[in-house]
Every structure is written in structure tokens, then in C-alpha cells.
Design goal:
binds adenosine-5'-triphosphate; Rossmann fold; membrane; alpha+beta; 8 helices; iron; ATP-binding; ATP binding
């Protein structure tokens, strides 16, 4: 085991401010008026489907792209604005990309020392060695990146990004190149290192679970805009609309109309605050919120499919008046299988009601 140095890297974390930031590639608008404040030391995940503008936003923050309107500030310094533009190398940021972008012809030590050109060579190498040792990679200092596993290469890339003690660390899909078994451990390790370094951190991901694990807050993006910003709990519990709810969790969508402040559906009625009389609406019901009991109580249903999935089994249940079978995730119930009748009950804590928005 390598000796872990006692010296802790302290970076002066930056506050990042985006004010009305726009960016277009030709006629494609990729950022449409982004306002965002990220506090020093905070980890924020930019989350959203492919093409929503996450990478563009990261590139704007890094200075790889220049906004067509709006301002970007790091602490009180305007780094991009109508009359100012600070190039990436002068922004004091650390970058980690999906493919690690390590130089194949440099040793791991030289890869990490690369960003320390301003220091005398011996000092740069000593700093780089300490950074590698913090990542428990000291013994690979003289090797080349190709001899390392994907997870180890990712840690070298992280060491290289943090060795200059940047005020802000920007990571673009940093774990997507790793296989799913490695991803969890590298993610946890990265989180520890980033927290230790104290840097402000922006992470791009399209994976909601990753965003919930990594982010103090999540900025949910859609078509060049941030549609919701909040803690993982807030986004999961109170998604702003139906597409946001869909993004975080597989859901059953049961349509109905609002009557007397409640949404009437074949599964019962649910509170529909803020929705007017007669409004078409949708009850979004999480699969773990559907309970299957003996027939005779609740809504009458029939199991059409049952799959053993380990911890929670998957059932598909048809209910009269609902187009698609309900997806149900429950602990397996002995003897309950396809063809059996059930009574369907809904846990109202797992139901969200939204105005219908179309498919
Ligand atoms: N260099 C470019 N030239 C032209 N259009 C681009 C360029 N880069 C991105 N775009 C477009 O800008 C929009 C936003 O792209 P961006 O890569 O920021 O999205 P993303 O959310 O990061 O997507 P992904 O998760 O697939 O990487 C998309 O419509 C994309 O096609």
C-alpha cells in the first residue's frame, strides 16, 4: 500500500455565476438564457437527455466556447461577457473528460505534472507524485497510461485536473467509459477526492442515479434551458412537470379529469392542487407505489406478467379502464403469478398529479 501523504490540497473554491448565457452553433441554439449560481465547494450535476446542451454549458464555463450573450463570472471576475473573454488556461479550472484525454506518450507522472509547467521541474514532479499518491497510484508513476485499467486512468486524469488546485473542477461524463461494476467505486472515490480538495465542481451526466449520488444540487436541462434546479430529494419528490418525473423514474401514467380538486381515475381519486375543474391530467404513479392484495378490495386487476428480478420482482397488471398494464415492483409474493386476479391499491405518497402535456 502506498503511503498517503498527510498534506491536504487546499483549493480556494470559486463561486460560479452564469447570467443570461446564450450560445448557438450556427442556427442551433444550444444554450437559451442560462442563469445559475454555484456556491464555493458545491457539487452540481448538469443532467438531461442527449442534445439538451449540457456539454455546451460546460464548454462555455471552461472557455472553450464563447457565449453569444450573457456573462460568466468566477468569483467577482467576469471571464466571459460582451466585452471580456478570459481563455481557458487563465480561468484556473480543472477539466476531466469522458475519455480521460491522457497523453499516451507521457508517463502517468508526467501526465499529472503537465499542468505544472510554471513550477521548476523538480518541484512539479514532487507535486505530481504527491497527487498520484493521494489517488493510491504512486506505484504506477513511471508507467504509461495504457498499462492502467479504465478506473485507474480516470484517477490519473483526476489527479492531473486537481494538481493545480483549481477553484473549479469541470467533469464531462467522467464515468461513462467505465464498465458498470467499476463505475460505482470510481464514483465514490472521485467524490471523496473532490470533497477533500474542496473545489467547486460541475459534472455533466445523463444518468439520473449518478446525478443523485454525486450532486449537492442537480440542474435538470431540456432543450438548452435549465428547467429545474434543486437538491436530489427535491427533484425526485417534486419534479416540476411530467417529463421531469419521467426522467427520474419509470412511472405509470394514468389519465383522467379533474373534478372538485381531485383527479378521478380507475385507480381512485388523487388530490390535484392547482388544476382547474375539467382539466385533463395524469397521475404519475411510481412502480413501488402499487400494492397487490387479494381480489375484492381496491381496483380489480389481473397479473399478466411476472418476472423474478432479485430484490424486487416486476409484475404487469391490467386494470379495466387503463390502456397499458401497470408496472409494479414489489417483493415477490409466493404463488402470485400471471393469470391471477388481484386487488390494486395505490400508496398516495408515490403519486404525483400533473396537467396532461401530451406524449
Ligand atoms: N460543434 C457543434 N456544432 C454544431 N452543433 C453542435 C455542436 N456541438 C453541439 N451541437 C448541438 O448543440 C446541441 C447541444 O449539444 P450538447 O453536446 O451541448 O448536448 P449534450 O446535452 O451534452 O448532449 P450529449 O449528452 O449527447 O453529449 C445539440 O443540438 C447538438 O447537436
Amino acid at each position: 500500500m502506498d503511503d498517503v501523504p498527510t498534506r491536504t490540497p487546499i483549493s480556494l473554491a470559486s463561486r460560479l455565476i452564469l447570467e443570461g448565457v446564450h450560445h448557438s452553433y450556427g442556427t442551433t441554439a444550444a444554450a437559451k438564457g442560462i442563469d445559475l449560481v454555484i456556491e464555493p465547494g458545491e457539487i452540481v450535476c448538469l443532467l438531461g437527455p442527449s442534445g439538451c446542451g449540457k456539454t455546451t454549458l460546460l464548454r462555455l464555463i471552461a472557455g472553450i466556447e464563447r457565449p453569444s450573450a450573457g456573462r460568466i463570472l468566477l468569483d467577482r471576475r467576469v471571464v466571459a461577457g460582451p466585452d471580456q473573454f478570459v481563455p481557458p488556461e487563465k480561468r484556473h479550472i480543472g477539466l476531466v473528460f469522458q475519455d480521460y484525454a491522457l497523453f499516451p506518450h507521457l508517463t502517468n507522472l508526467d501526465n499529472v505534472a503537465f499542468g505544472l509547467k510554471a513550477l521548476p521541474r523538480a518541484e512539479a514532479l514532487a507535486e505530481a507524485r504527491r497527487a498520484l499518491e493521494r489517488m493510491r497510484l504512486g506505484r504506477y508513476a513511471g508507467d504509461y497510461p495504457h498499462a492502467l485499467s479504465g478506473g485507474e486512468q480516470q484517477r490519473v486524469a483526476l489527479a492531473r485536473a486537481l494538481v493545480t488546485r483549481p477553484g473549479i473542477l469541470l467533469m464531462d461524463e467522467p464515468f461513462s467509459g467505465l464498465d458498470s461494476r467499476l463505475r460505482g467505486s470510481v464514483r465514490a472515490e472521485t467524490l471523496d477526492v473532490v470533497r477533500d480538495a474542496g473545489a467547486t465542481c460541475v459534472i455533466v451526466t445523463h444518468d439520473p442515479e449518478e446525478a443523485m449520488r454525486m450532486g449537492d444540487r442537480i440542474a435538470l436541462m431540456r432543450a438548452g434551458r435549465i428547467v429545474q434546479l434543486g437538491t436530489p430529494v427535491a427533484l425526485y419528490r417534486e419534479p416540476i412537470d411530467l417529463p421531469a418525473a419521467r426522467f427520474f423514474c419509470e412511472i405509470n401514467e394514468v389519465a383522467g379529469r379533474v373534478a372538485g380538486g381531485r383527479l378521478e381515475t380507475p385507480l381512485g381519486s388523487f388530490a390535484a392542487p392547482g388544476l382547474g375543474e375539467g382539466t385533463p391530467a395524469v397521475a404519475a404513479i411510481r412502480p413501488q407505489g402499487v400494492e397487490l392484495r387479494a381480489p375484492g378490495s381496491g381496483a380489480a386487476g389481473r397479473v399478466v406478467e411476472h418476472r423474478f428480478l432479485g430484490e424486487l420482482d416486476l409484475y404487469e397488471v391490467v386494470v379495466a379502464g387503463i390502456d397499458r398494464p401497470l408496472i409494479v415492483r414489489r417483493r415477490g409474493t409466493a404463488g402470485l403469478g400471471a393469470g391471477q386476479n388481484v386487488g390494486v391499491h395505490i400508496d398516495i405518497a408515490e403519486v404525483l398529479v400533473f396537467a396532461a402535456t401530451g406524449p
